Amino acid sequence: MTAVDDRGMTRFFEEFEPPEGIKIELLRGEVVMMAAPDLVHNRIVTAVQDQIPPQRWERLQTTDLDIANEASEPVPDLLVLEPGVAPDSGRLLPSSLVTLVVEVVSKTSVDRDYGVKRSIYAAGGVPAYLIIDPVMAHCVLLTEPVGVGEEADYRAQRVTKFGAPLPLESLDVELDTTDFGTYKAVRPHRYP
Q1: What does each C-alpha distance from 73 to 38, 92, 107, 109 come to in angstroms?
Q2: Which runs of consecutive H residues, i.e. helices, occur in the chain?
Q3: For site-directed labelling of 4, which of 22, 107, 160, 165 has its Cα 20 to 30 A away?
């Protein structure tokens, strides 16, 4: 895609109003639309947010993330940043301001969460990316982003099963994953 096409897609994306209950993201030039998430998903997002102290961290749900040099505007389930660093208003939050991004895997987002978003968040320099997977009943914490574009990735990975404590060193928080729910009757996938 050329630079002109990227700007045109971004402009279209900014002006597009999805139907109620539909979430849209721009991922490397592709517009992805998803139905509203499952209750398991929403309860996990709330449980994580509630464990991150609001006195020390700003916690935002479904905020569009601006990734420099990418035709991408992902909308993480939760992002965490230091208080006072975000602009007062606006639709896009620069990825350089974010300390942690959280994605809860849905029944249809496995490949995006483990694949393209992993690369996009690493390319954006997001220091920590937490994938919470109710299909496999585990969390994957990715840290130490390196690289650019589609070759970007995280050097460090820690997998924690639901029920075990999950240290988030970048926030100085330990998540209790005991009450994270799982999807019923969903076939396991191949990701860690």
Answers
A1: 22, 8, 21, 16
A2: 3-15, 39-51, 110-111, 117-123
A3: 22
CA distance 80 to 63: 11
138 vs 161: CA distance, rounded Å:
4
Query: What three-state secondary structure class fits 26?
Result: strand
Burial label for 61, CB within 10 Å (0-12, 13-18, 19+), is: middle
pLDDT at 28 over 80: no
Q: What per-residue confidence (pLDDT) applies to 1?
A: 34
- Helices within 38-86 (DSSP H only): 39-51
In this predicted structure, the answer to whether residue 188 has a pLDDT above a threshold of 80 is yes
DSSP of 122-177:
HHTT-SEEEEEETTTTEEEEEEEEE-SGGG-EEEEEEEEETTSEEEEGGGTEEEE-
